[in-house]
Request: fold
Amino acid sequence: MTQERPDGAPVDPAGRFATATSTQVAIVGAGPAGLMLSHLLHIAGVDSVAVDIRSRHQIETTHRAGILERDSVRLLVDSGASDRVLRDGDQHRGIYLRFGGVSHHIDFEALTGASVWLYPQTDVFKDLAEARDRDGGDVRFGVRDVRVEDVLHQPTVSYTDAEGARHVLSAGIVVGADGSHSICRALVADRQQFFREYPFAWFGILCEAPKSSPELIYTRSDLGFALISQRTDRLQRMYFQCDPAERPEEWSDARIWDALQSRLAGHDGFSLREGPIIERSVLPFRSYVQAPLRHGRLLLAGDAGHTVPPTGAKGLNLALADVAVLAEVLERAVKKGDTEALSTYSERALARVWKAQHFSYWMTTMLHQVPGAAAFDEQRHLGELSTLVASEAGKTYLAEGYTGWPDTTRHGATPGSRVSSHGDGSTAGREG
Ligand code: PHB
Reply:
């Protein structure tokens, strides 16, 4: 533990804290974004401390989305954070769009040469937490009363540990990777906030059943949206559109299966396989962006700066893309004293964020029923889907968005990556 700031001043002259430590980068939030950042900084030779109010177990067992873009997989593999994604993840070469009771395959590999991986966020977190353990990373879970102060000059992050002792970290830079309930985002002065609320939510379940489909099915029906996703050969994840005020505990298994079956019904022989439902929850649905993503020595990453509705599976991917840019910028700022680099982050990150906002909004509005919408709009969305699946250009647009846009702003993009896509759709390859 160091008791002094890098400039030689004492961290805690009044002696109010049990420990006073300094670090180059303090990261508020140790979910996938915070841990990936601390992992990338470690590789770059920059030290960091991450704190989170949640326990490791809590984060590990909170179910979130499950689709990784190609570049997210590359980042995990090439940075040495996870080999497991290639072993245990499932490479999906496309998705099905289902409407009018018929499924249409969108073949990402054939359209763009890219695919996605089904690998749950909980596994991404486990891999990253293990990587930080392996490398001796400083990650403090289960703290409370986190306070971030003086982000313009000499930032500090203070918190209370499980025993009730108060600690302070002084940091060259603070990163707020503390999710959609971020305490850091309000510290950005003169922030602009952009919102979109939706009049629906998702009812999500985890069930013990065999797979119903080799790849994900996104469905529009007269009764609303449904998504058939997966976890393992025996565990499946599914969602259907519901009222945001719906109470999951009031839904019996039979009622849930009825809601899903009626949305998936059709004439093409598709059959949805059922089993005991072991978890149910209602997921909020909103689009949110805060700009800028930087104020002085504070920078925001992931859900702390932006939230997308889950329809495009972009949330985790955006967070990982943020921290890839951020790690590069922080390395330049911390190791080369190039603080100007910090000022490029917000614009670079937000360029991708707005593409993803549009993509998620587009997928959402195309596939959901707005309660009370005009019959005209229902027919118009069916027209939109029919146009899309009949058009190479339309399908390619969807494939490019879903598999993720390449980052043209980052140094050292990934030509020599161990993750490659093959035109024949074979599994993730390793080069070298
Ligand atoms: C999931 O598997 O949980 C999942 C997949 C795709 C989405 C959203 C959630 O768009």
